Amino acid sequence: MGMESFKIANKPPRTPPDFLFPIVLTILLWLLIILMIKWVTFAAYLNIGLAECRSGIEI
Hints:
Elements: H1 3-8, H2 20-45, H3 50-55
């Protein structure tokens, strides 16, 4: 699956090179991981639980 399905997919005439997709996806996923770690760390710093962060309820 993965890259094989990406290569055979119907694409518009001007698409980026095939090697660029996994690089960009990896960078985006690492940025998301870093953001989640910072969010959890900040929530712990404020001494609030994750449930309160998700629901928007302040106690």
